[in-house]
Design goal:
Length: 173
């Protein structure tokens, strides 16, 4: 069995804030859906950690207050905190967050994914990789890496737009 990078992570109690409930008016195709921080957080909070059978929320890697949404200008920013400053899984975690949002949100959104400032020794390099469209596309062309991303991302959820999250990516790739 491979040695764990963080063998004994701190586990946090998940937020008492419940997942958003879909309302009947959310299904109206004539109206643009308004996306907010809670909805984005709901999409990423249940992503599994690559090393442990815990969610990113349980490890405090993702937090609601580190998600910003400017719906009017179609921009979303997500910051995440690796569990240790030398976490070699930071890029994979960020890629999983990006894929989850790519699969779930309308295409009009520009999404920035960043390691929270001061929380990783290679934060600039990781951030550059996560926000470079060509690097992300190349990573997702790697079948093995895509399988890992799919295992880590929860597939049991149907997103706010009524399709399984894997539907969009399977059409695109």
């Amino acid at each position: 069995m491979p040695e764990l990078i963080n063998a004994n992570p701190t586990v946090y109690i998940p937020s008492k804030q419940s997942y958003r409930v879909t309302r009947a008016e959310d299904d109206n195709d004539d109206v643009d859906d308004v996306i907010d921080s809670q909805e984005v957080f709901d999409l990423i909070r249940a992503i599994s950690d690559p090393e442990h059978p815990l969610t990113l929320e349980q490890l405090n890697v993702t937090r609601l207050e580190h998600v910003t949404v400017d719906d009017k200008n179609s921009h979303i920013a997500v910051e995440f905190t690796p569990t240790i400053p030398h976490c070699s899984m930071a890029t994979l975690i960020g890629l999983c967050i990006r894929v989850r949002l790519l699969r779930s949100l309308p295409e009009r959104f520009k999404v920035d994914i960043n390691v929270r400032k001061g929380t990783h020794q290679s934060e600039q390099a990781v951030n550059k990789q996560l926000n470079d469209k060509e690097r992300v596309a190349a990573a997702l062309e790697n079948r093995h890496l895509l399988e890992v991303v799919n295992q880590i991302n929860p597939s049991k959820f149907v997103n706010a737009f009524g399709r399984r999250d894997n539907d969009k990516m399977s059409r695109d790739h």
